[in-house]
Design goal:
The complex is a heterodimer of chains A (719) and B (191).
Chain A: H1 2-17, H2 20-40, H3 46-62, H4 64-77, E1 81-85, H5 88-101, E2 106-109, H6 113-118, H7 120-126, E3 130-133, H8 136-143, H9 160-171, H10 179-196, E4 199-202, E5 206-208, E6 213-218, H11 222-228, E7 232-238, E8 242-243, H12 246-261, E9 268-273, E10 284-290, H13 294-298, H14 314-317, H15 320-325, H16 336-347, H17 349-358, H18 364-368, H19 375-390, H20 394-404, H21 407-420, E11 430-431, E12 447-448, H22 455-458, H23 462-465, E13 471-476, H24 478-484, H25 486-498, E14 501-504, H26 514-518, H27 522-537, E15 543-546, H28 549-562, H29 570-579, E16 580-582, H30 583-590, E17 601-605, H31 609-615, H32 619-627, E18 630-632, H33 647-652, H34 654-671, E19 675-678, H35 681-693, E20 699-702, H36 703-714
Parallel strand pairs in A: 1-10, 2-3, 2-4, 4-7, 5-8, 7-10, 13-14, 13-15, 15-16, 17-18, 17-19, 19-20
Antiparallel strand pairs in A: 5-6, 6-9, 11-12
Helix pairs in contact in A: 3-12, 9-10, 16-17, 16-19, 17-19, 24-25, 25-36, 27-28, 28-29, 28-31, 30-32, 34-35
Chain B: H1 8-20, E1 24-27, H2 31-41, E2 46-47, H3 52-56, H4 59-65, E3 70-71, H5 75-78, E4 84-88, E5 91-93, E6 98-102, H6 106-113, E7 117-122, E8 127-128, H7 131-144, E9 148-153, E10 158-159, E11 167-168, E12 175-180
Parallel strand pairs in B: 1-12, 2-3, 2-4, 4-7, 5-8, 7-12
Antiparallel strand pairs in B: 5-6, 6-9, 10-11
Classes of the chains: A alpha/beta (719), B alpha/beta (191).
Chain lengths: 719, 191
């Protein structure tokens, strides 16, 4: 079943990749969004505000029942009829029965993702009630017979000519594809419907426990009409929308519109408490509090942070995968990173299985989330659960369990690969073409060959480095530096030696385990963590320095988490984490000011996802390059993923990687720089491969290589 | 009515933010100037609900004298012909340029949602700093009556649902005119 599912998903990715107009629109949107959002946040302390939201949402999570009871009591006191719906069926039943009792024929709706989640429109239609969407984007999507491809902008995948054609079917005449005109058509077509409707249905952005009020945050004004004009107003709201107090509600309002649409505030925020009086029959307000998997999520200690979500859509806006394949493919009811997680809890692991694998792990969503949800970590957790359920697949299972856990075998295989690849490797050490069914891997990039000799065979003996080192550090090279780009490690030795620091490379070190962990094989990751902790600390170094930010994250964070319950290794893992540094950050601290360096040329810097967003290092490499005489030319979106993502670009989703890499190469070219500096061997492999294949002259190098060359040319032994 | 001076810093911030959100903010000198502004911009029949400041200014009378057609009841039926609606504001928020209107009375809701133009009369004494400063009066409004409906209004109705192109006036008012008039009310519990 899972194989067929994967094939189906792959076919949907292919279809999305050929929708280039959508990709262009989502890219332009992502760029414009980031700029506007930054402006909307310029006077605010985003980190402090999102920390506050995380805290207040966690407080609700801990005392869910208490706040629910309080909200229900006060909402009922204000005259609302409140019902708790355990699942989609219960919510639909209540609303359908209510419509029947009131003899409703037409229900006008304002945008509600919860109603999409439970399939309310379909349930009402089956009962003979027309549910008419009135939010412009939702109406467009409803007319097209589709579902929203974004939580805030449902029709972002569509274009004015398509909208004109849909509206033409409604009005019975040709409608010009002019946006202002189309908006006027919607106003005119829907106005009478509001006045005729028997029922109004909306969602809510906040349910305030302190007052029993609901808050609706909107721009178009349709929610105000939905709430005001029909005699019955039904509010369908997830229990995750609860906040304790009005102050908390205001805190959410500070970040929600800024994160969703980069507005300081939306046009309307309506605070509704009970059924307000109206002309004609007595008004009814029904509040359906939807659980539908939310309580289960709240009880799940690894994933519960996802309940903090404000539904702003920011995680999709910045996601390179979303921008490449759109929300219909990278999402279910909810889209983007939060969509992946909510799908798993609201719809089940099976519909989430492919989505979970489609995340490239760049952490752009984690950095932007106004509720401070570590979406990547939760997605990894879900990936583990799916692989526990479905297995890793034969290939991965063999590689991880039999090969990766056995360092000698793993390294012996890499060495023999270096020998076997000789016939297909060019003079630059790149593989430009692969035979047969591997050929697609080198269609759009060259691949680096395994080095003739790994770094471990090339490392200068410590006695040959310095006579009296002031510090002694252990290098954790990671597989890519060790076996593919050993010169990065040698550059590091050379730079550190000039800072009077000696470098050892403990020979027993192995893969950091991240590839296994990211594929869902936790046990292999645990075994590798033990091996590496033991080997790296064996000689009691002053510091452990890495040349790969993913490895840094492994040593600093993942090992600690993986070994926290391991009596023998927990303490050592924490000690290792405390002395581990990324090379750029470490050297920036150790390298004193250089004598005025000769001008070396122009360079643009690519921020590796795991260095900037994983380790918080982005200033240091730029400072080092500047010190070394490089003239920095920033590229646009320097911190956007390069498309590497480890096995993502080789095995699981090379077709998506290819598009993401294309974006990065274009940014590099627009910068006009002669060279590209990166601090991650993965990014190096990806970008060098892509530039080489296109025959472009820009050099891609690890920051350490550029620094080492500059120091060598300066000609001083030590500083 | 004795009031202390208007906080000019808050007022400037409010005017800037409201303008940024697409509202027209107009400082009117007196009742005559205010009525004149509305009469010149209404472009058709006006929905005028019953609210404290409107009463105090005897707006219906003044507007009719200026030649406006003024509806004061049966707004559902009258909405189709109405070109504008007038309300007061309980208070306003400087940082977002928001006017806050207790619109529990249906007539206030209809006048501020259905017509193409919405005129809001605001005394600049009632401008608060931000949403957190609004919590106090909002809490009092909630306590005073039940059920209730309070609206935060920031600029005109807008959408960007087609190709992200900002378009004004989809379902609500396409124009929001905020008329500042000093000395008419300093009470956030009335509009």
């Amino acid at each position: 079943m899972s194989r067929q599912r994967s094939r189906d998903y792959r076919a949907r990715i292919d279809a999305a990749l050929s929708a280039t107009r959508q990709q262009g629109a989502l890219h332009r949107f992502g760029d414009a969004y980031l700029e506007a959002r930054q402006k909307a946040l310029e006077d605010l302390d985003f980190e402090a505000l999102r920390e506050g939201i995380a805290e207040l949402k966690d407080e609700v999570g801990r005392h869910r029942q208490q706040y629910l009871d309080q909200f229900i009591e006060l909402a009922e006191k204000a005259g609302a009829q409140v019902v708790r719906a355990a699942d989609a069926e219960a919510a639909n039943d209540y609303i359908v029965q209510l419509a029947r009792r009131r003899g409703a024929k037409l229900a006008v709706k304002s945008k509600s993702m919860a109603s999409e989640e439970i399939g309310l429109n379909q349930a009402l239609r089956t009962a003979g009630v027309e549910a008419l969407e009135t939010d412009l984007g939702e109406w467009i999507v409803q007319l097209a017979g589709q579902r929203p491809s974004h939580m805030v902008m449902p029709a972002i995948h569509m274009f004015r000519d398509e909208v004109a054609a849909l509206f033409g079917q409604v009005t019975g005449q040709a409608e010009p594809a002019d946006i202002e005109h189309l908006v006027a058509v919607a106003r005119q077509q829907l106005r009478d419907k509001f006045l005729q409707a028997d029922m109004g249905i909306s969602g809510a952005n906040l349910a305030v426990a302190e007052t029993g009020a609901l808050a609706l945050v909107t721009n178009e004004g349709n929610a105000r009409l939905v709430a005001t004009l029909p005699p019955v107003h039904v509010v369908l709201v997830g229990i995750d929308k609860l906040v304790p107090t009005l102050e908390d509600a205001m805190r959410v309002l500070q970040l929600l519109p800024r994160s969703a649409t980069a507005q300081a505030l939306t046009s309307y925020v309506s605070w509704i408490r009970g059924p307000v009086p109206q002309e004609g029959p007595a008004k009814e307000l029904h509040i359906v509090l939807l659980d539908n998997g939310r309580s289960a999520l709240a009880e799940d200690s690894d994933c519960k942070d996802a309940l903090r979500c404000l539904r702003c859509g920011a995680c999709a806006n910045v996601c390179p995968v979303y921008q490449t394949i759109g929300g219909h493919v990278f999402g279910h009811t909810y889209v983007g990173a939060i969509g992946v997680v909510l799908t798993a809890f609201l719809d089940g692991l099976e519909p989430a299985a492919e989505l979970v694998k489609a995340c490239i792990g760049c952490r752009a969503c984690v950095a932007i989330c106004p509720a401070k949800i570590d979406l990547e970590e939760i997605i990894l957790q879900l990936r583990r659960r799916i692989s526990d359920q479905e297995g890793l697949g034969f290939g991965k299972s063999l590689v991880f369990r039999r090969v990766l856990r056995n360092r000698r075998l793993f390294h012996a295989l890499l060495r023999s690969a270096a020998h076997l690849q000789k016939p297909i490797t060019d003079s630059r050490g790149s593989i430009r073409h692969l035979p047969l069914h591997f050929s697609s891997l080198t269609e759009w990039r060259t691949l680096p060959a395994i080095a003739d000799k790994p770094l471990r065979d090339l490392m200068p003996a410590i006695d040959d480095q310095l006579s009296a080192p002031r510090l002694r550090v252990a290098l954790f090279a990671g597989c890519a530096t060790d076996f593919v780009h050993p010169q990065i490690g040698l550059s590091m030795v050379s730079v550190l030696n000039r800072c009077k620091i000696a470098v050892t490379m403990p020979r027993g070190q192995s893969c950091c385990g991240i590839p296994a962990l990211y594929s869902g094989d936790r046990q292999t990751a645990v075994e590798l963590a033990r091996q590496n902790v033991r080997e790296l600390l064996a000689d009691d170094p002053d510091a452990v320095v890495t040349t790969c930010p993913t490895c840094t994250a492994a040593l600093r964070q993942h090992f600690v988490a993986l070994l926290q319950d391991d009596a023998q290794y927990a303490e050592s893992a924490r000690r290792l984490a405390a002395i581990t540094y990324d090379a750029a950050a470490f050297i920036a601290e150790q390298l004193p000011d250089l004598p005025a360096a000769a001008h070396r040329g122009t360079v643009t810097y690519h921020d590796s996802c795991h260095l900037k967003r994983g380790c918080g290092v982005w200033k240091e490499p730029r400072q080092l390059l500047d010190k070394a005489g490089w003239d920095l030319r920033e590229m646009d979106r320097a911190d956007r993923c390069c498309g590497f993502g480890g096995s993502y670009s080789f095995a699981s989703h090379p077709e998506i990687s290819r598009e993401i890499t294309k974006d990065k190469v274009n940014s590099i070219l627009r910068s006009g720089a002669e060279a590209v500096a990166v601090d991650c061997p993965g990014c190096l492999i990806m970008l060098r491969g892509a530039l080489e294949k296109r025959g472009l002259p820009q050099r891609v190098a690890h920051t350490l290589e550029l620094i080492s060359e500059a120091l060598e040319d300066a000609g001083e032994d030590t500083i | 009515m004795i009031m202390c001076g208007v906080d000019m810093e808050l007022l400037e911030r409010f005017i800037l933010a409201a303008g940024r959100a697409g509202a027209h903010v107009v400082r009117t000198l007196d009742r005559t100037a205010l009525v004149d502004y509305i009469a010149r911009h209404a472009e058709g029949p006006i929905l005028l609900p019953n609210f404290a400041v409107g009463q105090r200014l005897r707006l219906a009378e003044a507007l009719r004298e200026s030649g406006c057609i003024v509806l004061t009841e049966h707004f559902r039926a009258g909405a189709a012909q109405a070109s504008a609606g007038i309300t007061g504001a309980n208070f306003a928020l400087a940082d977002t340029g928001t006017v806050v209107l207790d619109s529990t009375d249906e007539a206030l809701r209809l006048a501020s949602t259905l017509p193409r133009r919405h005129f809001v009369i605001l005394d600049p004494h009632k401008i608060l700093a931000d949403g957190l400063a609004a919590v106090g009066p909002l809490r009092v409004l909630h306590r005073r009556q039940s059920p209730d409906f309070v609206a935060f209004i920031t600029g005109p109705s807008r959408t960007a649902d087609i190709e992200r192109v900002l378009t004004i006036g989809v379902h609500g008012p396409a124009e929001l005119h905020i008329l500042l008039l000093e000395g008419i009310s300093d009470d956030p519990l009335e509009s």
